[in-house]
Specification:
There is one protein chain. The chain is mainly β. The protein has one domain: Acyl-CoA thioesterase, double hotdog domain (Porin). It is 10% helix and 42% strand. The strands form two sheets. It has an eleven-stranded antiparallel sheet with strand order 1-5-6-7-4-10-13-12-11-9-8. The protein has a two-stranded antiparallel ribbon with strand order 2-3. A hairpin with a 3-residue loop joins strand 5 and strand 6. It starts with 5 loop residues before the first helix and ends with a strand. This is Acyl-CoA thioesterase. InterPro entries: ACOT8-like_C (IPR049450), Acyl-CoA_hotdog (IPR042171), HotDog_dom_sf (IPR029069), TesB_ACOT8-like_N (IPR049449).
């Protein structure tokens, strides 16, 4: 099976069909399953097939039900409700008849009303002061070869540092300008579970559910560098809660993330 870039993977999706099949390439795997940011981006693109106007994506709720392996993957999308302002769509990724990823996506028209300025400020080291993180074959998940990462500190797996916060600059190596919503979705899941830094050895960990909320319309997102500021909120009994903020290179808050994760010491 040939490698596919992020954009090439999304190019397979027919915007006119709510029931179709695509191929997931092996270069997007982390272990036995597809990188969660890619699975979510595919589901988001599938959900958009139900939208026939200019309603931008406002939020997505993802359940990682089971592994998405390399190979044929069936996509379905169904509009749950089409209101005056908001449309809710459910999309699914299936393999061999079983649901692997389920998403509820909210698309909403802009409305002229009172807003509020964000209080969040990007606290990041200058990108050029941090060298690119090297890819360690056999140690790091293969999908990371599709990104350039400049880790500013915290959360490095298997260090035993017990970090509760991490920061990193990340960008796609692929041109994602045609897919702004999926571009950000693919970026926002790059940080590893912070609980992996609490052990001095490699452990298994994965996301169970994920919420990603877009602060600005995806059309305003540029395919450039993003800064990710993620924090461990709590962890017990093998489950952790991790939240994060995604900024553009100019410090504009683009999205907020929240994940429930499971880890196996």
């Amino acid at each position: 099976m040939s490698d596919l870039s992020f954009a090439e993977t999304l190019d397979q999706i027919d915007s006119r069909s709510t029931n179709q099949s695509i191929t997931v390439a092996e270069n997007w795997l982390q272990g036995r399953t597809c990188y969660g940011g890619m699975s979510a981006a595919i589901a988001a693109r599938a959900a958009a097939t139900c939208i026939d106007d200019d309603r931008p994506l406002r939020s997505l709720l993802v359940a990682f039900v089971g592994p998405v392996g390399a190979g044929d993957t069936d996509l379905t999308a169904e509009s749950l409700r089409h209101g005056k302002s908001v449309t809710l769509v459910e999309s699914r990724l299936k393999q061999q008849g079983s649901v692997a990823t389920q998403m509820t996506a909210a698309f909403g028209k802009p409305r002229d009303t009172v807003g509020a300025e964000t209080i969040h400020v990007m606290e990041a080291e200058p990108r050029d002061s941090v060298p690119p993180a090297p890819f360690l074959d056999g140690v790091m998940p293969g999908f990371l070869k599709n990104f350039e990462i400049r880790w500013t500190g915290g959360g490095v797996p298997a260090t035993g540092q017990k970090d509760t916060r991490l920061g990193m600059w990340v960008r796609h190596l692929d041109d994602m300008s045609r897919y702004p919503a999926e571009c950000l979705t693919g970026i926002a899941d790059v940080p590893p579970p912070l609980m992996m830094s609490h052990f001095d050895r490699r452990i298994m960990a994965s996301s169970l559910t994920w919420s990603l909320e877009f602060i600005c319309p995806p059309a305003e997102i540029r395919n450039d560098w993003f800064y990710l500021d993620y924090r461990l909120e709590a962890a017990s009994q093998g489950y952790s809660q991790q939240s994060g903020r995604v900024f553009d290179a100019n410090g504009r808050l683009l999205a907020v993330s929240h994940q429930c994760m499971t880890y196996f010491p």
